[in-house]
Amino acid sequence: MAGVENKNALVLCIDDDADIRELLTRVLSRASYRVETAADGVTGLAAARTRKPAVVLLDIKMPGKSGIEVLQELKQADADLQIVMVSGIGDLGTALDCIKMGAADFVVKPFTHKDILRRVDEALETKRFLDKARGFVKEAEAP
User: Fold this and answer.
1) Helices 113-141, 18-30: inter-axial angle, 10-degree rounding
2) Domain tally for the chain?
3) Span 8-24, average pLDDT
4) Is the pLDDT of residue 120 over 60?
């Protein structure tokens, strides 16, 4: 989405595959996103708590805490957080389960640079819309 302003938007990439983390960092940085990475779910949860990303790219299959467990914890902490699930397996049932649990989107590896950027842009646009709507609600509720 060409109209989305990326500067200063932080994307947190949680994936146990170092090559995927490196690729996502390179692709997203070129598109003016700030990028942080985590190699496992526990580290990713800690980073999300302290860094407050706009969008999270989250691998499903990881050692230790699975992406599904991390998704549930992240959504519990911030229902509006935009999380794009990433999987090496294009299982429709898993994708639907993730969406039901609050994921914004689901992408299957291997993905194109254009596809991942489009999905992150869309998630960021949704985040900004929700933030704006929340601001309007607060204004309307103010005495």
Assistant:
1) 70
2) 1
3) 96
4) yes
